[in-house]
Task: inverse folding
C-alpha cells in the first residue's frame, strides 16, 4: 500500500493517528551530560546503545526520510556546561551552519511530496547580544523558512527578533510539575515536552491535579498532585482512574479556556494555593529502569539489583559433574550442581 501525502513513513511505521504531532529532535529529553564535545559538523548524544555522535548531514537525511511534522534545528549546546567566551563565539556560527544545511536539504529533496516539515530554529541559552549575529541572519535571510523557535532557557526568549515573536515557541526545559509549567506558559511559551508525565506513571502515581483546581477549603493543608497507587490504601479501591496523559489534555484545555476568559493569572494563583509544589514520594519500585532511561554519572551506585550472575564460580564443578540421566528429577539436578533451589 503506498504512503499517502498525509501519511509519512514514520507515522505509518509507528501507527500514529493523524491528529498527533510528530517532532524530530537531535537529542533525548531531558538531556544528560555529554561525554564528548561537539564539533563543527556533529553533536555528542546518548542513544539506547550508549554515547555517540550525530553528524549534521545525517540529521538532515533523517528529516528527509522520516518527514515529521516539526523538525527542531540542531543546536550547538552542551548540557549542562556553561560556555566560555571562546565557546560562545562558535555556538552561533555552528548552529547557523547546521540550520542552513537543513533548509537546503529539505528544499532540494525532490522526493518530498505534500506539505514539508515545519522548521523550528534554536534560540541558544546565552545572552541576546551573544547570539545577535546568528539571530539577525535568520531574521534577514531565512524568516520565510522558519515556523517556530526551539527554546532551551526561558530567559533567552527576549533574544527573539521582534518581527518574529509571533511564531510558536517549543520549549525543551525539564519542567517538574504544573506550577512550573504554568509559569512558563505565562512567559509566552507554547509547546512543551513533559517528562514528569511518564515519570509519574513509572512511579505508580496517578495525577489528580486540575486547573484551576477545586474550590479552596477551610483546611490550610495543600492537596497532593497525585495518588500513590502502591499504597495499601487503594488495595480494594475500585474507583475509576483516568490516564495521566488524558489528565494533562484536560489541564491544557482548561488553560486555553482560562486565557480566553482573561482569568489566567488569577487561576494560576488559585492552583498555587490548593496544591503542593512537589509530587508525593512513591512507595513502590516501579518498572525496571533501562540504561537509556536514566542519567548516568561517575561513581553512581547500581540503580537495580543485579539480574544475572557469573557462572565462573561453578564452571569447574559443573565440568567435573557427570551428565544427568534422562529420568533425573529436580533433587538429582540440585545435588549435581546443575540447578539451585530458590526459596
Result:
Amino acid at each position: 500500500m503506498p504512503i499517502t501525502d498525509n501519511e509519512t513513513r514514520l507515522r505509518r511505521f509507528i501507527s500514529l493517528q493523524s491528529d498527533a504531532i510528530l517532532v524530530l529532535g537531535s537529542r533525548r529529553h531531558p538531556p544528560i551530560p555529554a561525554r564528548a564535545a561537539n564539533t563543527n559538523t556533529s553533536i555528542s548524544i546518548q542513544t539506547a546503545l550508549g554515547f555517540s555522535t550525530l553528524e549534521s548531514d545525517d540529521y538532515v537525511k533523517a528529516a528527509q526520510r522520516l518527514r515529521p511534522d516539526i523538525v527542531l534545528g540542531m543546536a550547538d549546546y552542551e548540557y549542562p556546561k556553561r560556555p566560555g567566551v571562546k565557546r560562545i563565539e562558535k555556538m552561533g556560527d555552528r548552529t547557523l551552519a547546521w540550520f542552513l544545511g537543513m533548509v537546503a536539504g529539505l528544499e532540494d529533496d525532490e522526493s518530498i511530496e505534500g506539505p514539508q516539515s515545519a522548521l523550528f530554529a534554536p534560540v541558544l541559552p546565552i545572552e541576546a547580544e551573544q547570539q545577535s549575529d546568528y539571530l539577525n541572519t535568520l531574521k534577514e535571510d531565512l524568516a520565510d523558512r522558519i515556523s517556530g523557535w526551539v527554546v532551551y532557557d526561558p530567559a533567552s526568549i527576549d533574544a527573539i527578533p521582534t518581527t518574529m515573536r509571533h511564531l510558536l515557541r517549543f520549549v525543551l526545559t525539564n519542567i517538574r510539575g504544573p506550577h512550573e509549567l504554568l509559569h512558563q506558559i505565562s512567559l509566552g511559551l507554547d509547546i512543551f515536552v513533559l517528562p514528569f508525565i511518564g515519570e509519574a506513571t513509572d512511579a505508580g502515581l496517578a495525577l489528580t491535579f486540575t486547573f484551576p483546581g477545586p474550590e479552596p477549603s477551610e483546611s490550610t493543608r495543600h492537596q497532593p498532585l497525585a495518588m500513590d497507587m502502591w499504597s495499601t490504601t487503594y488495595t480494594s479501591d475500585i474507583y475509576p482512574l483516568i490516564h495521566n496523559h488524558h489528565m494533562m489534555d484536560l489541564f491544557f484545555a482548561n488553560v486555553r479556556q482560562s486565557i480566553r476568559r482573561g482569568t489566567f493569572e488569577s487561576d494560576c494563583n488559585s492552583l498555587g494555593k490548593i496544591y503542593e509544589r512537589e509530587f508525593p514520594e512513591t512507595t513502590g519500585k516501579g518498572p525496571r529502569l533501562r540504561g537509556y532511561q536514566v542519567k548516568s554519572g561517575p561513581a553512581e551506585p547500581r540503580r537495580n539489583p543485579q539480574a544475572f550472575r557469573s557462572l565462573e564460580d561453578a564452571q569447574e564443578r559443573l565440568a567435573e559433574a557427570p551428565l544427568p540421566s534422562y529420568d533425573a528429577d529436580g533433587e538429582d539436578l540440585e545435588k549435581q550442581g546443575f540447578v539451585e533451589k530458590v526459596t
Observations:
- Strands lie at 23-24, 42-47, 50-55, 70-72, 118-123, 148-151, 168-171, 191-192, 205-207, 226-228.
